[in-house]
Amino acid sequence: MNFLAIIKTISIYLSLIFLTTHCVSETNRSLKEGFINPPDSARPGVYWYFMDGNLSREGITADLESMKEAGIGNVLFLEVNVGVPRGPIDFLSEEWQELYKHAVREAERLGIEITLGSGPGWAGSGGPWVKPEQSMQHLVASSTEVKGPEKFKGLLPKPPPRKPYFGEKALTKSLREKWIAYYEDVAVLAFPTPAIDNRIKDVDEKALYYRAPYTSRKNVKPYLPAPADYQEISGSAIDTSKIIDLTEKLKPDGTLEWEVPKGSWTIMRFGKRNNGAVTRPAPAPGLGFESDKFDTTAFNAHFDEYIGKLIKKVGPRKKGIAGGWTMIHIDSWEMGAQNWTENFRKEFKNRRGYDPLPFYPAYTGRIVGSLEMSERFLWDLRQTSMELILENHAGHFKELGRRHGLKLSIEPYDMNPTADLDLGAVADVPMCEFWTKGFGFNSSFSCIEATSIAHVHGSPVVAAEAFTAGSKEAWKKYPGNVKNQGDWAFSIGVNKFVYHTFAHKPLGEKYRPGMTMGPYGVHWDRGQTWWSMASAYHKYIARCQYVLRQGRTVADVLYLTPEGAPHVFRPPMSALEGDDVLPDKRGYNFDGCSPLALIEKASVKNNRIIFPGGASYRLLVLPDFETMTPALLEKIESLVKEGAIIVGMPP
User: Fold this and answer.
1) pTM over 0.70
2) CA 501 to CA 467: how far, in whole Å?
3) What Gene Ontology molecular function terms does this protein carry (predicted)?
4) 342 vs 237, 259, 292, 371, CA distance in Å?
5) Which helix (H) or strand (E) holds 108?
6) What pLDDT, on the 0 to 100 scale, is given for residue 316?
């Protein structure tokens, strides 16, 4: 190498060093400036609750101005009925819509962002505009025992609806009448009655008639087992080769004429009914059936009647404005499960590759073919349900929002019939929830879920419904004594607090502390004695949130969850320390990953498992599960060949 070449090489190295140093310096300067003066986008938010018709124009302005002064940067707008006497402004009336428009305009003026829930109440998407045929549905059945040879001519009993999970008290007289009246036939099947009446265990859960709330009910399974072997009982299964489709023989009045072959036969009449899920806890004028979560046409009708109306009323968002209506939201899943829709059979055939018709008796716990075949059908049923919810409900809602410039946040847990990690992955902003320690339920698991979703899918913001509380909290909490739990949330991965709750104050300054969200807290609003002093605390929160949104996730362990639905990600106890409410990661950072995310997004670089969003992991831990689909096995094999380190027992 000659002298000029050496000088040129040294110059290149010095230039690279200068550029690197300059970039690091600029990054440090940017971080420092962002910490000292965090941007408005880093400010915390509040759940802004309105109590069934109790709204005022002056109160809306006063609420938002007080938030601005206190350092609140965003609100989640919801109206509920939690026992507070109804006010004069009917939900979604012309006057109500004008007040919502006023709230948006004022938020634009003040630089505060508004997120609107997917329907009236705090959970779900529905309302009085949802017709029974557009609602969440169950496949229901009745059975008739006959003996042949004979000519059967009789009325097959109309299958009754399944009881709503939260009981019939949630149904108004009108809704109850519609719930009972709605029925459409789906199929009639006949088969030789098995000698032994052995039923599938826990079939109501496996067939998605019910999914209990994981947070508030004891002994709810985080997932359903899928063993490799089943104990078969001879004589207990329906012979699939002898199932007869009698659907065409059923008359409109429910009568059937059929020449019964020799032997004992069971005739089953299958139909679809509303599952009894209603908007909750919705304002009285917003009470109605939950919309079908499998069908885009049904959801479009709901969207047009609620969010679509408000989009037309408010008008397009002005360019260059930081605040205003920017997001839509699906809160914690509390509307339960459905297992049917108009095109379910067609969708099942397309996705699973076989006709579900002969397996309809398995919905009721009857064994078709064999116990293994029936259990695998029910697994396919749940998988199809999950795919329809992800695509035709959450994914479709996200697409509708995007058409109007609105992003989507989702709390993907509780009565969720899908896998939490996959439902949350649909969101632009995954959300979790943590209750104030000692004043409610324990949902800290959802924070580990939300941070895992954000890291694996490259979402910079992890939001939390923060410090939710029951009636015993009673104004006991304030910034000073929630700081420890807030710091825990930051350390677990949350970087956006949305305090639950700021209750709208429609009655002016005369009454203190003003209207509340019934028994629920934590009371984080202008009715508090300390509210005027909270801005410094909220700036501290904004500084933390800004810094925690920078950079990329680098972790040690990636826990792969089992396949199937429903699924709640719970890391092994060996990965955690501390108590149940405030668990800390024990020594090593980790995230959970769904099989779907692994298959679609994972690759290997320098022996680390990496994802497009930038997250990387040293090793993958397989679930302690007996079964695995070929697609997932192939993906794991490819990661091994690429150099990934994988720990666990093969299925």
Assistant:
1) yes
2) 8
3) hydrolase activity
4) 28, 30, 10, 27
5) helix 94-110
6) 86
- Strands (DSSP E) found in 224-333: 237-238, 244-245, 255-274, 289-290, 324-330
DSSP for 566-592 reads: SB-----GGGEEE-SSSEEE-SS-EEE
CB 39 within 8 A of CB 546: yes
Query: In this structure, are strands 407-410 and 324-330 parallel, antiparallel, or unpaired?
Result: parallel
Beta strand pairing call for 496-503 and 463-468: parallel
- For residue 136 the two structure tokens come to 């969440």
**C-alpha radius of gyration, the chain, whole number:** 28
Tell me the C-alpha distance between 333 and 345, whole Å: 25
Task: Average the pLDDT over 236-246 and give the result.
Answer: 98
User: Which residue type, as a one-letter code, is found at position 199?
Assistant: R
Q: What's residue 18's pLDDT?
A: 46
Q: Counting Cβ atoms within 10 Å, is residue 137 exposed (0-12), middle (13-18) or buried (19+)?
A: buried
User: What are the residue ranges spanned by the domains of the chain?
Assistant: 1-37, 554-647
What is residue 117's three-state secondary structure?
A: strand
Q: How far lies 648's CA from each of 112, 552, 558, in Å? A: 48, 27, 12
94-110 and 57-70 helices, crossing angle to 10°: 20
Asked if pLDDT for residue 493 goes beyond 80, the answer is: yes
Tokens of 134: 């557009």
The proportion of the chain whose per-residue pLDDT surpasses 70, expressed as a percent, equals 96
- Tens digit of each residue's pLDDT (9 = 90 or more) over 381-396: 999 999 999 999 999 9
For 185-211, what is each residue's pLDDT tens digit? 999 999 999 999 999 999 999 999 999
